[in-house]
Amino acid sequence: MTPDRDDPEGAIAAAAKECSNWGRWGADDVLGTLNFLDAAKRREGAALVRRGVSFSLAQSFGMDGPQKGWRRRTNPVHTMLDTGTDAALGTQGFPHGFGGADDVIAMPLQCSTQWDGLGHIFDHGRAWNGRAAERVVTSDGDLVTGVEHMAARVAGRGVLLDVGRVIGGGGELPDGFAITEEHLTATAEAHGVRVGRGDIVTVRTGQLARVRRDGWGDYAGGPAPGLSFTTAGWLHRTEIAAIATDTWGFEVRPNEFAHAFQPLHQVAIPHIGLLIGEMWDLEELAEDCAADGVYDFWLTAAPLPVTGAVGSPVNPVAVK
């Protein structure tokens, strides 16, 4: 059933009710769908390492990144504290010729390749598992579901769904293209891969390849291909542990409703408890998968255990 374009409020409420995981793992749960990624699933993922070739799925964390200042999001600012010049000039104060370099980085946690934590999005003042948002995230951070709780959990069977290659002409989907459940299913079938409980799913649209060719433009917040709001049921029913895309916002932009903003986030994070990744670089991995026809792999993508954070930079590594 296609939701009423003019009624985002009603569509969100209906999907939230249908897809809710509130209470599924108890009132005190802080992991959401990562509960599906258990020891057996990690053993399954580890067994997928055949060739030992590895791929970083992270964009560069540099000042030339995609951010344009929306909601005070900036690109990383990297500053040296000690340099080779200091060592050569002998100003560091170390004995017997010892010298070194140190550096510092300042950055929003959601400015490049990252995970959205469970405290990142609310629905009508409710956070994951039905908690009151004001009691979960305060000026002290996420007091309940901070990403530090996930630090040891995000490692298991990864799956690539290269929708850009299977559905899109020339390997890329156009901006504004809404990826439906049918597109996801058709892509999995074309790859000969299954998607199910505990998987970490990556979805390539090809947008990152396009902006690298043409320039960042409005990559950070502008029009983009992405998941349709109608995939909420698929995200819930498949019992995947996490999902990540090569786009800024995971879901299709512009959104499919009039006067709406990221409605799929509003269902997926606070109601499904789903871990969402954005701005992942799937290009090199996708080329390798197309070459050998293998679309599942060992994937580790631990968030930085920043106490109370609602998101985290990540360097995901896929090993085949």
Automatic annotation (TrEMBL):
Entry-linked PANTHER family: CYCLASE, PTHR34861
Taxonomic lineage of the native organism: Bacteria, Bacillati, Actinomycetota, Actinomycetes, Kitasatosporales
Coiled-coil ranges (or none): none
Protein name (Swiss-Prot/TrEMBL): Cyclase family protein
Domain of life: Bacteria
Pfam families for the chain: Cyclase
